[in-house]
Predict the structure.
Amino acid sequence: MRQITKARRPVQRSLNWIPAHDGIGDHVRLHVGKDSCCYLVQEIQCDFHGERAFQLDKLDIADPAVYYVRIAGQRRECECLGHLRHGRCKHADAVAALLGMGKLPQKFPTCSRAA
Ligand SMILES: [Zn+2]
């Protein structure tokens, strides 16, 4: 028997960068399909050679969460379930996009020590 599967439409993704204001740090609103959520974005110290690390705090009282993203060029890692399952996720993609837009100036020196 032949299985018929529906072709999946690519999910629309976009982001809005919201610079720090009124005592709230830099944050980003991620839009994935019809859903959207805000994340506080902070660079954190990273001891891995040539990498930078970021903490994303999900600003959702009903479903709070913290995600850690490490990035070095095209290599991205996040500890969320989506990244573990698919090898990519909206958090790491957002950090890469923000770096590409020059929105995340380097706060800590990149570690030159080999991991
Ligand atoms: Zn993630």
The helical segments are 81-86, 90-100.
